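Morning F.,

Quick status update on the modeling queue. The single chain you submitted on Monday has been processed. Sequence for confirmation:
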Amino acid sequence: MTTAVSIPRTGGSGGHTAVAASARQVVKAYGSGETRVVALDHVDVDIARGQFTAIMGPSGSGKSTLMHCLAGLDTVTSGQIHIDDTEITGLKDKKLTQLRRDRIGFIFQAFNLLPTLNALENITLPMDIAGRKPDRVWLDRVVETVGLAGRLKHRPNQLSGGQQQRVAVARALAARPEIIFGDEPTGNLDSRAGAEVLGFLRRSVDELGQTIVMVTHDPVAASYADRVLYLADGRIVDEMYSPTADAVLERMKHFDARGRVS
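Structure tokens below.
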């Protein structure tokens, strides 16, 4: 069985919502024979540009695997992944590394900041490595959006967990990537700091036109998104637009042991 989920097409004069990333008939399997485990089972999905998409599902549902495949961090067994109009499945390592560096941003649960660099140096590090100068106007806008203007000279050990994650968010935004992927980006934060970071992610979509895909297990975090995709047994089994925390929690309660919606 193939599960196909597509974004609603909107826009005046017969226009279409632009697609930032897509998966077509994507299978990700580990092992072979009796030990073969299918993590993604013929997934079809479009990620809308300029929107915030959350991916949810029970443990082992394939949500992190889907994000890693969409982001080019993991290979697929079969099928195609596109970032905009570029097919990344089959790209050589050097080309894939360049694409991830130039067109994709990442926000991880563990922050991944260098302790010897201050906040500003951590934000610009990927561009420094690539030999690119930051757009100062854009960088200033990103720093203002995430509320770090007064903390740029501080090193990570002088920042709170929430502030460190805001540096990680700013680092992902600063290079103006086409799409940002977040893997449980508030998982190490308390509820207040988590709400701050999620608010900044929401603002980056609304005010900066960013596209964000976030894996989360938290209904409150998912409620900041425009759309929630639900995975189970490696398939997209449901979706929700304009989610609320209560609606997401209620939907999750209706997944049975196999992950299907009752």
